Amino acid sequence: xxxxxxxxxxxxxxxxxxxxxxxxxxxxxxxxxxxxxxxxxxxxxxxxxxxxxxxxxxxxxxxxxxxxxxxxxxxxxxxxxxxxxxxxxxxxxxxxxxxxxxxxxxxxxxxxxxxxxxxxxxxxxxxxxxxxxxxxxxxxxxxxxxxxxxxxxxxxxxxxxxxxxxxxxxxxxxxxxxxxxxxxxxxxxxxxxxxxxxxxxxxxxxxxxxxxxxxxxxxxxxxxxxxxxxxxxxxxx
Amino acid sequence: xxxxxxxxxxxxxxxxxxxxxxxxxxxxxxxxxxxxxxxxxxxxxxxxxxxxxxxxxxxxxxxxxxxxxxxxxxxxxxxxxxxxxxxxxxxxxxxxxxxxxxxxxxxxxxxxxxxxxxxxxxxxxxxxxxxxxxxxxxxxxxxxxxxxxxxxxxxxxxxxxxxxxxxxxxxxxxxxxxxxxxxxxxxxxxxxxxxxxxxxxxxxxxxxxxxxxxxxxxxxxxxxxxxxxxxxxxxxxxxxxxxxxxxxxxxxxxxxxxxxxxxxxxxxxxxxxxxxxxxxxxxxxxxxxxxxxxxxxxxxxxxxxxxxxxxxxxxxxxxxxxxxxxxxxx
Lengths: 237, 330
Known about the structure:
Chain A is α/β, with parallel strands linked by helices. Chain A has 10 helices and 10 strands. Chain A has helices at residues 47-54, 77-82, 100-111, 115-125, 129-132, 142-153, 172-187, 199-205, 224-228, 230-235; strands at residues 7-18, 21-32, 36-41, 62-67, 70-71, 85-88, 160-164, 192-195, 208-213, 216-221. In chain A, β7 (160-164), α7 and β8 (192-195) form a beta-alpha-beta unit. Chain A is globular and about 45 Å long. Chain A starts with 6 loop residues before the first strand and ends with a helix. Chain B is mainly alpha-helical. Chain B has one domain. Helix content of chain B is 73%, strand content 4%. Chain B contains 14 helices and 4 strands. Chain B has helices at 15-38, 41-63, 72-88, 93-115, 120-141, 143-146, 167-190, 192-202, 204-209, 214-240, 252-263, 268-288, 292-306, 310-320, and strands at residues 2-5, 9-12, 152-153, 242-243. In chain B, the strands form 2 sheets. In chain B, strands 1-2 form a two-stranded antiparallel sheet. In chain B, strands 3-4 form a two-stranded antiparallel sheet. In chain B, β1 and β2 (9-12) form a beta hairpin. The radius of gyration of chain B is 20 Å and the shape is globular. Chain B starts with a strand and ends in a 10-residue tail after the last helix. Classes of the chains: A alpha/beta, B mainly alpha. Chains A and B meet through α2, α3 and α6 of A and α8 and α9 of B.
């Protein structure tokens, strides 16, 4: 733990299995308060499984997860969400029958945050939404859905945000929008854990990087010079 | 009118909404009164009772996305409890109605904890199983109280002008009940609570991501839906003065499901339109054709395969054609 920083999340030697198939092997990592941590690795390395385990979708078969110093593994998703852990899944699924504003409303009802404040935050993140607030979210593009999902997860200022592959399958121009939003979150010290394949995004934003391979953490990077070296990052993929 | 959201306090209905409710009440009320000029009044009374049942089912299926093959269990429970109260406690029809509704609610509160552990096909089938148990209890297990296949004959007492044997009074009272249920469900479905329930239908996991206790929302909606299903059962009992096990037969569920599909699931107007159309079809076919069930079955098959969005779904599409906004650009 760095001087003055506090471990918000600590994963200690967890194993996760789908039936008899073990997917994560003794994975340990940590995230300090206000840090933006990235996990990189090839497809099938277990990155999404790790995020799903932290968010409460999967239960580890061994090890433990500490959040603000308390064991939380095995707690249901909704309870972890109420504790301030929000998960943005990879599939970019919004509530397509609700409007953009309706999606934000749903999150603001759950958290008790003022709707106007929540909508204002969303339109500040992505001003184009000002014109789309009344439109069905099902009609948004993939990039806009991702931004809406991040905006929705930010309602009532979560303590820890987990984002799975935010730029996957998106056009370069949209990736820049998402990069800008993540940069704003970094400046506002939103504690964020991101699975990402786009090394340009990782190298410009990460405070810490974990490299995963075959269900194990094979490398931890905290040195900014090392993180900015995309060639080195790429060598692990 | 206010609905309390456990997370955020209260939700108020705006003056605009109130005026829209007034339009709804006027439209539905006038339509049913007009119907009474063209078809026998006892048919319209029957339609009104059935439409309340269909509305209650639409909340569960159309709005929350839970298909149940056991919804008439609560309808039958309401009918039998009302009849038993009329026979053994008091001939006051309002007491019978209140007792029937309370019985349906209590049963749903208990069974809700069990059936909502499941989802999809198991949910539909576990409800069917409970419905079958209820049918067996009424027809056989509790024969000493329910008179089994013979059914219960009752007469609701009169209180001044309140006389359920008087068809115009019964029609007026049942229509008010239908309108009240419609408004209640409309307020519910547009409230934050209702929006959450509709979102559970679309993606339950994502609602959990936001911190909602989804089970609580599902349980409350199940209880509300079942309680509202008990209401028409009690109205049936006080109006007809006779209930038999057929009222709780699991076969009755198909009628409710078909009515919702005809009108369009997840639309309160659709539930009422579907209820009326189904009843009209079944009544006219039964009057004119010997093997009417077969023809009804064929018509319903065509409907389910060809017109899945229901009458209101196609009506919306027709109204909105040409008015759609272009797709959002990246």
